[in-house]
């Protein structure tokens, strides 16, 4: 068994743990955190539900990335990663990252409009920068996968 295939099992275990943590966060942690925020800062109480909705949908985008990564790991395990079908899953990751980035941007704008650039808004600015870097990195990796797929197709045609 190749080293790449041996890494698929622990990566899948991490993906399962990540997915479970995201679901628990969506169902239990976020509602409690935003309820506490509304109780401690009455001026932010009107933002409780919009921010909760943005956070839950943002985490759903991360869950979509986990699912797409799982499918790509299956393709790596089966040595089918260099195919046009893999691009579908990579495009799913790019779309989910872009969607999450737009949601964080919306939350950032909402917070800055209400309380200025402080606390959580400053944290969201950092998340926006990291999210933009991850999104652009995924676009570059998609282009590399496209090139590798084309080269593999050409090589298979020669052999």
TrEMBL record:
Keyword Transmembrane helix found: yes
Record's keyword terms, sorted: Membrane, Transmembrane, Transmembrane helix
Transmembrane segments: 51-74, 86-111, 117-145
Keyword Membrane: yes
Superkingdom as given in the UniProt entry: Bacteria
Protein name stated in the entry: DUF2975 domain-containing protein
The organism's taxonomic lineage, starting at the top: Bacteria, Bacillati, Actinomycetota, Actinomycetes, Micrococcales
């Amino acid at each position: 068994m190749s080293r790449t295939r041996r890494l698929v099992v622990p990566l899948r275990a991490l993906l399962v743990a990540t997915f479970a943590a995201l679901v628990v966060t969506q169902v239990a942690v976020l509602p409690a955190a935003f309820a506490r925020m509304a109780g401690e800062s009455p001026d932010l109480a009107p933002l409780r539900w919009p921010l909760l909705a943005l956070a839950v949908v943002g985490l759903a985008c991360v869950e979509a990335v986990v699912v797409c990564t799982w499918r790509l790991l299956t393709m790596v395990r089966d040595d089918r990663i260099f195919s046009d079908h893999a691009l579908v899953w990579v495009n799913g990751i790019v779309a989910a990252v872009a969607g999450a980035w737009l949601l964080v941007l919306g939350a950032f704008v909402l917070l800055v409009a209400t309380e200025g650039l402080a606390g959580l808004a400053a944290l969201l600015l950092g998340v926006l920068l990291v999210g933009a870097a991850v999104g652009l990195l995924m676009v570059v990796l998609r282009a590399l996968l496209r090139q590798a797929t084309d080269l593999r197709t050409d090589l298979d045609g020669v052999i």
